[in-house]
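Minutes, project check-in
Item: structure for the 366-residue chain
Input as provided by the requester:
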Amino acid sequence: MRSVLLAGCLLGCALQLAAQSAGGWPQFRGTPALTGVAASAPPASLRVLWSIELTDPIESSAAIVDGRVFVGVSSGYLLAVSLADGRELWRYRVEEGIGESSPAVSGGLVFIGDLGGVFHAVRAADGTAAWTFRTRGEIKSSPVVAGDRVLIGSYDTALYALSAADGRLLWSVKTENYVHATPAVADGLVYLAGCDEVFRAIRLADGSEVYRIPIGAYTGASAALASGRAYFGTFNNEVLGVDLAKRAILWRYAHPDRQFPFYSSAAVGGDIVVLGGRDKLVHGLDAATGKVRWTFATRARVDSSPVIAGGRVYVGSNDGRFYVLALAGGDKVWEFDTGGPLSASPAVADGRVVIGSQDGRLICFG
């Protein structure tokens, strides 16, 4: 029975990867492995195609599927707009606000958590409720769909696996602190870097813990999985590379002069890991050794998680600017002043980039 469940989960992951490779960006960081790599690149020269003034802060990162953009707004609603022109399609209200939880789209449903601890499944076609599941703490983690199930973390210290079809609880895993990060999925395992200073590998089929690694610090960043390794930053001012086969920390990186936390989730493109720091820098690290390749200085902390596409890095900063950098050397290619801090992460699909700002502006570049 377990092998049947696992096969279904792996098939679902493969189908979701295929959807992303076809041009969509169905979830936070693009795919269940959270690599932050887009399947197609935006134009070499960007311009603003449209922007929407929503007045309320946007911390949620957008999803893009089938010509629609889905994003959470802090005042308490999930918004769907047309990717072509920004025209509003529908709003789905929640009782309390939506923070950093970012939507995931699969099987005609949009999944998102709210700050009241309720997890929502909303019909993508019309914004009506399909089902809800209530946790016992606020939700800032973003959902990940793997086969017939959807994973979500809560500040009640648990990671949940629910039936994507009807919200039925399949299993839950208790940790020793908040579950803030988004879980990553690869090869039938769920990987979670926690606020309890532990990196866990959990079996997707039944929620059993396969192993854990003490990491020496809590983290709000989500782990990116690539080539048998996981990469994430911590509040101990470090970035870690973890060897998943050896179940051991491979390397630790800390800037020699600037000791600030890493809240941004990493993107992994080939042999380079890119992430933002609260030291106002974007860091490009060697994936094998953790040694610094380059850094790029912004004017404020970088909590936004970068996206890699077509040899370039796309990332926001709390200085209000959206940056495009060369992946190879970190040189600035382009920047745009949005007028408000950017803590949300860009979504890249169909030749367009969408990002929301803290001053309530949703912007599409292309």
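Outcome recorded: Confidence is low (pLDDT under 50) at residues 1-22.
No further action items on this chain.
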